[in-house]
Amino acid sequence: MRIIRTVDYQDMSRKAANVISAQVILKPTSVLGLATGTTPIGTYKQLAAWCAKGDVDFSQVSTYNLDEYRGLSHEDVQSYHYFMRTNFFDHININLANTHVPDGSNPDAEAACRDYDRIVAEAGYPDLQLLGIGRNGHIGFNEPGPYFSKGTHMVNLTESTIKANSRLFDSEDQVPRQAYTMGVQTIMYARSILVVANGEEKADAVYRMCYGPVDPQCPASILQLHTNCTVIADEAALSKCPRD
Ligand code: PGA
Q1: What are phi and psi of 6, to 5 degrees?
Q2: What are the residue ranges spanned by the domains of the chain?
């Protein structure tokens, strides 16, 4: 695990965008695994700015997002489909047909998850998977539990995740209680992984991810076993980690 310490959120975002941009420049047909949440927004903004200048070209890239709330239509402003369009896809030269997010509008959880696993496998799994980390150490919506998950599956969100995500809704009641998420095993199939984290509220989770035991009670801790994982985090998120 490579840890890159940045001075602040902007520095984190620019460095993460540099890594993604290098991936796309080296392999224009890259398969990218993407994440939602507030952390990667600055990274997406930076990539969009470079794309507008002609410095990075997404025309041959395909993307697979980690997760989606169950029960929301693709047009719902709270859906991750909507998030990805408004925060990234609408601002770069990607072919929307090459972007993929689990189908939260399909009430048949088994079919939705099976279909998603199939298309991610057919794409050969991501060359680079971008991840945020939850305060409880979750990656995607893989919450702490007794074992690491495998493929895409339906999850019941934990109270702490519902509370954390409620800041983006009018009230906590409106946060969907279930989601479809890529499993931990699928995430680990990516050839490289880039985790972004900022802010003091992530410091515990970042410490456990990088230095704690590999334990499904902190799903991100499994990333210690990945052969090409980079963490880019600001001083506050790394405040509990040793400086060396
Ligand atoms: P955040 O979410 O970027 O909004 O903090 C990260 C996550 O829960 O994975």
Answers
A1: -120, 160
A2: 2-234
Give pLDDT tens digits along the chain (244 positions): 999 999 999 999 999 999 999 999 999 999 999 999 999 999 999 999 999 999 999 999 999 999 999 999 999 999 999 999 999 999 999 999 999 999 999 999 999 999 999 999 999 999 999 999 999 999 999 999 999 999 999 999 989 889 988 988 999 999 999 999 999 999 999 999 999 999 999 999 999 999 999 999 999 999 999 999 999 999 999 999 998 7
Query: Residue 137: is it exposed, middle or buried by C-beta count within 10 angstroms (0-12/13-18/19+)?
Result: buried
pTM check: above 0.85: yes
Class of the CATH domain delimited by 2-234: alpha beta
Beta strand 62-65 pairing with 31-34: parallel
Distance from Cα 138 to the centre of ligand 1, integer Å: 9
Ligand 1 atom with the smallest distance to the CA of 140 is 9
Q: Which residues line ligand 1 (CB under 6 A)?
A: 37-39, 132-134
